[in-house]
Write a sequence for this structure.
């Protein structure tokens, strides 16, 4: 098969997956909209809080946000807006959703990337070392550390880091997301470490297991017995162990992007996690829709990226895509 | 009828330089009420002298966040604190709750339904443009518009018209008499003067990061990231003169332990409205003192009298007797509160009756002591003598209320009443207020104004959460709306509450306190529930 037709196959694969992603997002938007519609509570009432109001004021708020329209009419009004690039206005803050989300998406994305980078740069190499030295003191120590990492509550880890590095040693700021650039990076270090702590431990365990599994394979014993250079054997092992690790990293990124809420609250970072939580309880439908769609899109695109990496890394997958 | 009310500080304002007045207010403390501020923690071993000094940046930590700066859109108490620095109404409360001049130099009530305001001539917006009567009229109409200002439109519903009646004069006419209206055109309640040009330029948006606020106060907003930070910078256009704090930086720190650490590290100077649950931790924090003050808040049980078994007065009375209100205050609030005997809080009538007078007047409203024998006897007289089961929804943001219901649940279980407590997000709790699905509910309400009828006019008015009606009570409330003599009006309001409470539609539990943690470099003078509801940085004094 020529390289041009192989490239064509990959492009087709990507296009099909993107089309599937659009269908998925539509389905997610409909399901989330329906679920919010079914939950008890009235956004108009929530807007007024525990205060006296009149039926006229409640009716006026409902009319302003079309809350009394039939369900499908509300959904298609929202969908029509989105197709024209208008995600609507937040009911809680009367601010366009895009304006509300702009800064927050950046904070969450930066936090997720930083935590992801820490996970990849620390947990994967440590997992490999632990597998190669399986049974050694180093392996056992790291494995115990990983169990603690998986089990430790994010909230507690965050507060301990804050106390030690923020207050006692005064190395990092205690809260907030800084003014951008290096200041932002400085502010995000402790939250990213907190976030990476738990998932890093998980990735460490997965990497260790994957590498250990490959090391036990017959082909490794065969290669070693044939006197193959240890460096070449290692490359073979790592390349084969790579597939499950990449899968887990893909999942981890999706989890990091959608799972920042506890870290956001602990470190007073304004990302999309805390906004999603408050918007769900408020029934601020346009905001919930935008955040769930964004998160779903990030997860779907990450999954696509992982698949493309498979295509590059595994000839068997490449052959299947080309067929 | 003519009942001119001249704002009490007018002559002082005319005679003295405004800056000098601010210093005077701050240094001497505003008198009139009897605020009972208590202070704990920090360095209390030496007597420090407080003085008004320039502060470059004051950093403040809020626990709750702001998503919109215009209180007409989002009306949490913290929205009011920020808006008080940027915008002004025609009148404002001073540090102890007296209405004093803001943009109006004076006002007169010329008939039971007519209020005439004379605008001060030196009022300017933060960009130096003069305030006109048209701006005032536009802002009032904006406050009345339920689409633009859903949170405050209610307070303007009774306004029939607003008109320019002189070069510097605006006249507001009400549809029916209501003395409480005095508090309407106030930045602590329902008016912030802005200009039509500003609102039009922002296509009707207000309070968002791209449209901010435009007002006549001592500060302008320089940065607003919703739910994250607000930065304010002093302007030199305020009629009141120079303010001591150049920059006010407010950050939102939702996690209380993080807020304590932020104070420990010196990142914030003041934490406003700290959690009483963690007051001890705050008091133990270095270089920090905690100031407590009654905050005009009310917590009490509501019965929906249209829902069985709470349509039975004996059931309601039994539950009232089972509430150990003194223990709630001592044990759940750590003493930072007061047993409530009425809907009106003492701080709303102290200005007229004094601290002791207020409490003895309110005591007559509800007098059902904690007594389980009486509770049992009342239940025996009811339609459900063997007891019943009921659920109550408690907001997760009100842990002390949850604990009070736990105590009540334990108290009434032996007599056959089973209470199931459902913890819920605050938004879901709103739905329980006055709902037929929740015969047993509670109200936690912070009065915005100093008007003694603020909460009772809702709780004893039409559409009240208890679905309660009483002709005598309605007559008394109607008279109170028209009574312009403050003492007589308070008497009518108390009579109305006492009349209603004979039927026990509500059980007041406690009047609360607010607490603020502050660096021991500074103090707030006076520190009352009104302190942060008008331009308040002149009340921040430097110690030592």
């Amino acid at each position: 098969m020529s390289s041009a037709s192989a490239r064509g196959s990959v492009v087709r694969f990507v296009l099909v997956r993107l089309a599937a992603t659009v269908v998925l997002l539509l389905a997610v938007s409909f399901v989330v909209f329906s679920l919010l519609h079914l939950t008890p509570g009235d956004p108009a009432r929530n807007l007024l809080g525990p205060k006296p109001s009149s039926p006229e004021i409640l009716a006026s708020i409902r009319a302003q946000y079309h809350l009394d329209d039939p369900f499908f009419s509300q959904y298609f009004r929202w969908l029509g807006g989105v197709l024209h690039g208008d995600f609507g206005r937040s009911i809680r803050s009367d601010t366009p959703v895009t304006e509300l989300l702009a800064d927050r998406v950046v904070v969450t994305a930066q936090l997720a990337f930083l935590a992801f980078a820490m996970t990849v740069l620390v947990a994967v190499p440590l997992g490999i070392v632990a597998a190669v030295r399986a049974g050694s003191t180093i392996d056992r120590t790291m494995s115990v550390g990983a169990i603690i990492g998986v089990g430790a509550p994010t909230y507690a880890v965050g507060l301990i880091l804050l106390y030690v590095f923020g207050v006692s040693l005064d190395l990092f700021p205690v809260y907030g997301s800084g003014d951008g650039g290096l200041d932002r990076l400085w502010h995000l270090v402790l939250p990213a470490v907190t976030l990476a702590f738990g998932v890093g431990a998980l990735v460490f365990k997965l990497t260790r297991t994957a590498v250990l599994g490959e090391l036990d394979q017959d082909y490794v014993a065969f290669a070693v017995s044939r006197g193959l250079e240890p460096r070449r054997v290692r490359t073979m092992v790592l390349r084969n162990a790579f597939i499950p690790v990449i899968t887990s990293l893909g999942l981890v990124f999706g989890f990091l992007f959608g799972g920042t809420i506890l870290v956001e609250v602990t470190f007073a970072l304004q990302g999309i996690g805390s906004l999603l939580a408050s918007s769900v309880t408020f029934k601020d439908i346009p905001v919930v829709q935008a955040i769930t769609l964004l998160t779903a899109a990030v997860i779907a695109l990450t999954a696509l990226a992982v698949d493309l990496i498979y295509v590059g890394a595994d000839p068997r997958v490449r052959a299947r895509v080309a067929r | 009828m003519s009942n001119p009310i001249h704002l009490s500080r007018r002559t002082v304002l005319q005679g003295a330089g405004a800056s000098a007045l601010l210093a005077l207010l701050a240094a001497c403390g505003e008198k009139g009420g009897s605020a009972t501020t208590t202070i704990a923690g920090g360095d209390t071993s030496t007597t420090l002298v407080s003085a008004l000094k320039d502060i470059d940046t004051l950093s403040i930590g809020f626990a709750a966040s702001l998503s919109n700066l215009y209180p007409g859109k989002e009306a949490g108490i913290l929205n009011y604190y920020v808006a008080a620095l940027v915008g002004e109404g025609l009148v404002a409360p001073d540090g102890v709750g007296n209405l004093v001049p803001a943009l109006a130099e004076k006002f007169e009530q010329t008939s039971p339904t007519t209020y005439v305001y004379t605008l001060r001539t030196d009022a300017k917006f933060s960009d130096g443009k003069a305030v006109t009567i048209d701006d005032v009229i536009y802002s009032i109409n904006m406050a009345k518009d339920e689409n633009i200002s859903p949170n405050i439109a209610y307070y303007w519903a009774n306004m029939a018209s607003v008109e320019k009646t002189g070069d510097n004069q605006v006249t507001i006419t009400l549809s029916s008499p209501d003395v409480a209206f005095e508090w309407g055109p106030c930045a602590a309640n329902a008016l912030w003067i802005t200009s039509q040009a500003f609102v039009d330029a922002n296509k009707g948006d207000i309070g968002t990061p791209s449209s901010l606020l435009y007002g006549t106060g001592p500060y302008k907003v320089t940065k607003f990231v919703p739910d994250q930070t607000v930065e304010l910078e002093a302007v030199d256009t305020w009629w009141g003169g120079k303010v001591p704090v150049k920059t006010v930086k407010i950050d939102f720190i939702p996690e209380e332990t993080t807020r304590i650490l932020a104070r420990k590290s010196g990142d914030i100077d003041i934490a406003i409205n700290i959690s009483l649950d963690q007051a001890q931790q705050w008091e133990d924090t270095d270089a920090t003192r905690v100031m407590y003050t009654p905050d005009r808040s009310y917590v009490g049980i509501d019965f929906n009298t249209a829902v069985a078994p709470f349509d039975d007065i004996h059931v309601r009375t039994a539950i009232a007797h089972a509430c150990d209100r003194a223990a709630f205050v001592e044990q759940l609030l750590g003493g930072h509160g007061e047993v409530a005997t009425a809907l009106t809080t003492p701080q709303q009538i102290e200005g007229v009756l004094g601290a002791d007078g207020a409490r003895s007047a309110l005591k007559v409203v509800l007098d059902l002591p904690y007594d389980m024998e009486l509770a049992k006897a009342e239940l025996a007289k009811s339609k459900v003598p063997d007891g019943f089961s009921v659920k109550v929804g408690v907001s997760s943001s009100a842990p002390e209320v949850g604990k009070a219901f736990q105590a009540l649940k334990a108290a009434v279980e032996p007599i056959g009443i089973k209470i199931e407590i459902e913890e819920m997000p605050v938004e879901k709790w709103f739905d329980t207020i006055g709902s037929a699905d929740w015969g047993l509910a509670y109200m936690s309400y912070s009065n915005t104004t100093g008007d003694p009828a603020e909460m009772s006019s809702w709780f004893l008015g039409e559409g009240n959460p208890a679905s309660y009606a009483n002709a005598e009570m309605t007559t008394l409330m109607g008279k109170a709306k028209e009574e312009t003599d403050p003492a007589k009006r308070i008497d009518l309001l108390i009579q109305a509450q006492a009349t209603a409470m004979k039927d026990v539609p509500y059980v007041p539990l406690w009047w609360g306190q607010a607490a603020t943690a502050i660096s021991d470099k500074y103090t707030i003078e006076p520190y009352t529930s009104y302190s942060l509801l008008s331009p308040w940085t002149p009340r921040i004094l430097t110690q030592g």
